């Protein structure tokens, strides 16, 4: 028996750019993170069979390899033959069917047990006879997920599943979806432009920009060491500056006018640095990588202070909801190991 894997290697000419995607997923959940219009949803639709790539191969190996698409061999399985579950942004429930009818759509008629199990698992008891228009957004999402999992797909595709929700519902449903996917034995692919969702759900991550993969790897590793400017931005790094290299371990930030010491030897191809907004700490005047906070401004949020230094650097400092007083320390510093070296 060969190892499980989902292989995608495709190209498709789009209006704005050519989509070129190549990855292999061997376990868990893969995230595709990128700005709007970068080709994320098109990748999902290609896996599902809704869109046909110009060339390439899409295959799934569980017990044996099964080809969904192969341009050379003229293979292109219809969506219903791929055993792929697709959670659309609007959930695509059948409006004239009840909750239990929607869940039962992909299940054989004599398998009522699976439907009742899904209703219980997704906390839909009491809603069985309701129609989608009578459900909240969260309930609709649970019905859509239950419908997908009821027919036992090999792959679940999640297309920006939280984009249209308010913050409270979003956080609640993220937890529910994480728990649902924990029990899922197949592969899942989540498309998002939200770095928190990517971090929370995904074992591995692809960063997509204008149809090209600009980074891929372990999610934690990509957040800790993004390596490229655009990857740092997409993973939420707020402070990014061009630099001049002084020596192997010192550089000058052009945008902030500050000289920094770093912990890693600076190679000649490093053009920028990044500093996460939470990585500053109060300091003494003679510390390494010290910054003066004179003329800094502060903005109070419910659970953090946002401090903007006079040179434009941004510091986020956690607070309690009842704390409304905060004196900005005279000096801040950043540990050399927390300065991210970046290529253009």
Described by strand count, sense and barrel closure, the largest sheet is:
6 strands, mixed
Query: Count of DSSP E strands?
Result: 22
Low-confidence region ranges: none
Strand order within the widest sheet?
Answer: 7-8-9-3-10-11
Into which percentage range does the β-strand content fall?
25-35%
**Rounded average pLDDT:** 92
Helix content: 10-25%
Discrete helix count: 8
Question: What is the 3D form?
Answer: globular
- Secondary structure class reads alpha+beta
H/E element string? EEEHEEEEHHHEHEHEEHHEEEEEEEEEEE
- What's the alpha carbon Rg, rounded to whole Å? 24 Å
What is the straight-line distance between the termini?
Answer: 43 Å
Question: Can you offer a commentary on this structure?
Answer:
This protein has helices at 40-48, 99-104, 112-121, 137-150, 167-182, 195-201, 219-224, 229-234; strands at residues 5-13, 18-25, 29-33, 55-61, 65-70, 75-76, 84-87, 155-159, 187-192, 204-209, 212-218, 239-247, 250-253, 258-261, 272-275, 280-282, 290-292, 297-300, 304-308, 314-318, 331-334, 340-342. With 344 residues, it is an alpha+beta fold. The strands form five sheets. Strands 7-8-9-3-10-11 form a six-stranded mixed beta sheet, sandwiched between helices. The two termini are 43 Å apart. The model has no long low-confidence stretch (mean pLDDT 92).
